[in-house]
Amino acid sequence: MQQQVQFQDLGQRSYQPIWDFQEQLLKENADIKAAFRKLGEVPPDQVPTMQHLLFVEHPPVYTLGKSGKIEHLLIGDQQLKDKGIEYFHINRGGDITFHGPEQLVGYPILDLEKFQPDLGWYLRSLEEVIILTMADYGLHGERSKGETGVWLDPLDPVKARKICAMGIKCSRWITMHGFAFNVNTNLDYFGFIVPCGIENKQVTSLAKELGKDIPMEEVKYRVKKHFEQVFSCQLISG
Prior knowledge:
Strands 1, 2, 6, 7, 8, 9, 10, 11 and 12 form a nine-stranded mixed beta sheet that branches. A three-stranded mixed beta sheet has the order 4-3-5, with no helix packed on it. The chain has one domain (3-237): BirA Bifunctional Protein, domain 2 (2-Layer Sandwich), CATH 3.30.930.10. By secondary structure, the protein is an alpha/beta fold. Helix 3 crosses helix 5. It has helices at residues 15-39, 77-83, 119-136, 206-210, 216-231, and strands spanning 3-12, 51-57, 61-64, 86-89, 96-99, 103-109, 142-144, 147-152, 161-171, 174-182, 202-203, 233-237.
């Protein structure tokens, strides 16, 4: 059965409130699953959890995953303050990344028992959404073995460049965090970190690859369309 996913475009919002909001949505679903588990007779795919997809742009912020290395942040507290960049050590997988204006951040809060309870499948599916979106612009997005996210020319050590970072948390098969797709993002901010903990590889954006800025609303429309396609779901705007 096709799942319905509640979609919200939150605009530009600070990082902490949206992190808190994700935690709230995850907890609501976890509580529902716990309550139905006590009944003991309801198949997991029939538990009435709610599916969500959040779009947001953050003001400049660096986030470090739970197993990331702080030395991959190359500037100190005073420099962060001077540059107006926030910093958070958070509970997703992956290392350090940057979020900022004109970057499309997507946070799916999904009960994978309603889709497929397989984290590898989930991450590859998120990558496929971005790969299909890039194809709409004539770009060949690819996966890089052992490096979650979407790349261009990943096998070429000189040309390899990452366009979309990904990092998730999953609890009781409920996801949070997600992807960060560089659209018209100011790539200078990546110069103050070792992006995703991967040294000597570049970061790029749609604008850099295409030589022009791309309307954010156009990119959002395409990502939503491909999300519905890949996850066999229907996005419902609240």
